[in-house]
Predict the structure.
Amino acid sequence: MKLENIKYSTDIKELQGCKLGIFFEGWEIKPSDQVFRDSLKNSYKVICAIDTEKNMIIGYITAISDGVLSSYIPFLEVDKRYQKQGIGSALFKKMLEELGELYMTDLVCDEEKAGFYEKAGMIRWNAMIIRRFKHQGGVRRKD
């Protein structure tokens, strides 16, 4: 895998024809490809890393927001075959630039990931969460 074959895109239409990398590692119930694509489509902002040789999404980051003051980053994932090449850092930096006019950007991460975000300029804080693992595969909304 050559990094010169990696393209970063915010264009959801461009992603429609792309294959999907391996995501949601370690999840007991993984979202279907359609639920994953719906999650991208319904996000406030999305940036995907695409391997242009394979026409495959190999990393992504999403943000949800009120568009005025606050944003939240629920997902940043890189296919494990592409990790440790700076793709996650590039996605995160690009997303922070996209959200730069907003007052706050928050996220919640596992303890072992906290150092990654600290290096990117975030600070540790408190968080409260609920996880409904029976719904881990997502919900398909009827449009």
